Amino acid sequence: MAYEYTLIDTPQALSSLLSKLYELERTRPALFIDLEGYDLCRHGRIALITIHASPLAMTYLVDVTTLGEASFTTEGENLPGKTLKSLLEDKEIPKVLFDCRNDSDALYNLYKVDMGGVIDLQLMELATRKRRQRAYVK
After folding, report:
1. Helix (H, G, I), strand (E, B), or coil: what is residue 126?
2. What SS3 class is residue 44?
3. Amino acid 29: pLDDT
4. How far apart are alpha carbons 131 and 136 in whole angstroms?
5. Cβ distance 117 to 92 under 8 Å?
6. Which CATH number fits the domain that encloses residue 104?
7. Residue 53 has pLDDT above 70, yes or no
8. How many domains does one find in the chain?
9. Which DSSP string corresponds to 46-70?
10. How much is the CA Rg of the chain, to the nearest whole Å?
């Protein structure tokens, strides 16, 4: 099975992507997100944000290295004020991540993005463990 992906490395491509993402249904998780970077934390750099939009059967690779601050300030087509930053912060748009601690730390400290609507799969997995298996979870 081939997976489709698109590199987002221009403000125009990002604007078009945001228009698609803001149209997605919000009743169940549709966005699956991961960040890649160098020493991914408040002292590192974000290089790439991978966004899989399951209803579109498409994965988008947002090139933060190329776009820089524009990754978070570019507005969607005909969507004033709707940016990747506002999408990531929106508590009404469910987003699935796995162990988002470093991702969230980097986003907040490097770009002032305060993640909202996050479903952390690692926390869900830990919560389903039997009591003895959770001995080291605090």
Report:
1. helix
2. coil
3. 87
4. 10
5. yes
6. 3.30.420.10
7. yes
8. 1
9. EEEEEEEEGGGTEEEEEEHHHHTTH
10. 16
Residue 99 pLDDT:
86
pLDDT surpassing 60 at residue 94: yes
- Say if residue 7's pLDDT is above 60: yes
pLDDT, mean of residues 89-96 = 96
Q: How far apart are CA 127 and CA 119, in angstroms?
A: 13
| pTM reported for the whole predicted model | 0.87
Q: Measured between alpha carbons, how far is 106 from 130 in angstroms, rounded to an integer?
A: 32
Strands 95-97 and 118-120: parallel
Q: Is 83 exposed, middle or buried (0-12, 13-18, 19+ CB in 10 A)?
A: buried
- CA 6 – CA 129 distance, rounded (Å): 37
Domain around 55: 5-134
Task: Read off the pLDDT of each residue in 19-33 and give the average, rounded to a whole number.
Answer: 92
Name residue 32's beta-bridge partners: 52, 96
